[in-house]
Amino acid sequence: MNAKFPDNPLLGPLSRADFITANTPLIEKIIVRYFRGQLAATRTPRTDAMNDGAIGLINAYDRYNDAAVPFGSFAFPHIYGEIRNALSRRPTSGIRIPNWLYPLIKRINRAGLADAGAEVVALELAINVKQAHQALRSIRITKTDRLPDEDKRRCADDYSGLEADAFIARLKPVPQRIIRMLMADYTQSEVARSLDMSRQAVRATILRVRSDYERYEKISA
Questions:
Q1: Can you tell me whether residue 81 is helix, strand or coil?
Q2: d(C-alpha 54, C-alpha 52), whole Å
Q3: How far apart are CA 116 and CA 170, in angstroms?
Q4: Nearest to 88 by CA among 41, 156, 149
Q5: Nearest Cα to 36, choosing from 123, 113, 140?
Q6: Which of 17, 64, 98, 141: CA 20 to 30 A from 75?
Q7: Would the pTM count as exceeding 0.85?
Q8: Cα–Cα distance measured from residue 171 to residue 188, given in angstroms and rounded to the nearest whole number
């Protein structure tokens, strides 16, 4: 056991270094699911994204303190946030969006479906899932172009801030899981399907948690 980097007893018998190595597939899954478009747009090697994600995984390991929360759920926003913020500081390659996609992108934006899944968009707009996926990917790539050049986070190695992490840890299991899934870039519809809830119930929970967090920030200030 390294005194400078102590092992986390809540995460089993593996040493800190061995645990991080054993869980690197989680970083790969996040990259494949959420960042393929941004890696192409910024011409970022996947190894760079893996290294950024490893920082988030290490931070999650060091901060994990509640065995009732699955480590994967806890680690997700840390890994995702490190990769996202690293990519936000890289210039894009100017990927050209096909002309035929622009009308569809406008329809998606007008309908407020930019954060929905491809299946939901396809159903709402009566198009096929492949078209919806291409349009959503283009929307997310263009969002990368509009991210700030500088990292504006309060803490350079933290996605959500320690105060936010402390607040989330106080939530009941269902609201906590909803918030962590949203922080991991799940859409509200995906969260609802995963937890067998209505989208309206998920939305109501989000609004309630947001109101509670505003009060929490005032008390913590």
A1: helix
A2: 5
A3: 28
A4: 149
A5: 140
A6: 141
A7: no
A8: 18
Kindly compute the dihedral angle of the four CA atoms of residues 219, 177, 183, 132, in this order, to the nearest 10 degrees.
Answer: -140
Residue carrying the six token digits 């910024």: 42
| CA 205, 63, 159, 120 torsion-angle sign | negative
CB 177 within 8 A of CB 72: no
At residue 184, what is the residue type?
A: A
Residue 91 structure tokens: 């210039």
CA distance to 16, 61, 82, 89, 137, per residue, from 50 (Å): 18, 16, 10, 16, 21
- Cα separation values, 141 from 37, 50, 136, 144, 169, Å: 6, 19, 9, 5, 32
Per residue in 163-194, pLDDT tens? 566 677 778 888 888 887 777 667 788 788 87
- DSSP code of residue 2: -
